[in-house]
Design brief:
single chain; alpha/beta; Rossmann fold; five-stranded parallel β-sheet; two-stranded antiparallel ribbon; about 45% helix; globular; 5'-nucleotidase, lipoprotein e(P4) family
């Protein structure tokens, strides 16, 4: 009897521990990005569409400005799932000091298809602007990471970091002063326009209204790990990871 009880307890303890660690909620999302063929396929699919759309945009181009594409960095051209895995193993969701440590390593791998697409764009004399919400303190290491893989236009003139605001619209508008934007690539709808999250509009309705832009002007990369989509799930301020985990569970649809 004691032996059987020990076996049952040994089996239940890891499950109980997992339930007490909200960071474990993200395990499947990170593993999916790191190990699934479907993740790679979706990335290649996105950048294949980007290439086709770029050709179409060039054919229709009448602008006298230099052409460009705008890309986000994290989960769009660089894969940070190793950082997310690191945090989960520490029992954390996100710690800014750990993120700085990770970016300083400049070891993020490329998102499948990203480098080939941007090199193709460069071959057509299309510049790339990297518009990221990484902080200024991450600037040098970010350039190092991009340059390590030979990303085109990875230089001071084409990397625009947050400088105190996560709103990318002013940076996009600054680019339009000198360049014609053919398309934008990102893993977050805020990488394309403020209408999806920053203007208090219904995100589903805005996506429906702009559906013809996805796969043409807007190229979306898969990111199940984090993003603006998660923010509307939570009610309240200064929530702990445990509070957020409880609210995530409550928001699930069931029957």
């Amino acid at each position: 009897m004691k032996k059987n009880l020990f076996i049952v307890i040994s089996f239940l303890l890891p499950l109980f521990a997992a339930g007490q660690n909200p960071a474990r909620d993200y395990t499947n999302a990170v593993l999916w990005q790191q190990t699934s063929g479907e993740y790679r396929a979706l990335c290649f699919q996105a950048y294949n569409f980007a290439r086709l759309s770029l050709k179409e945009a060039l054919w229709a181009d009448t602008s006298k400005k230099p052409n460009c594409v705008i890309v986000d960095i994290d989960e769009t051209v660089l894969d940070n799932s190793a950082f997310q895995g690191h945090e989960i193993k520490k029992g954390l969701s996100y710690v800014s000091e750990d993120w700085t440590e990770w970016t300083n390593l400049a070891q993020a791998d490329t998102v499948p298809g990203a480098l080939a697409f941007l090199k193709f764009a460069a071959s057509k004399n299309i510049e790339t602007f990297y518009v990221s919400n990484r902080d200024e303190k991450d600037y040098i290491a970010t350039l190092k990471n991009l340059q390590h893989f030979g990303f085109p236009y990875a230089d001071d003139a084409h990397l625009l970091v947050s400088k105190g605001t996560s709103n990318k619209e002013p940076r996009r508008q600054k680019i339009t002063e000198t360049h014609h934007i053919l398309l934008l690539c990102g893993d977050n709808l805020s990488d394309f326009s403020n209408i999806f999250y920053r203007e208090n509009k219904n995100t589903f309705e805005q996506v429906n209204t702009n559906q013809n832009l996805f796969g043409t002007k807007y190229i979306v990369l898969p990111n199940p790990m984090y993003g603006d989509w998660e923010k509307p799930l939570y009610q309240g301020e200064k929530l702990s990871d445990k509070d957020k985990a409880k609210q995530r569970l409550e928001r699930l649809k069931s029957y």
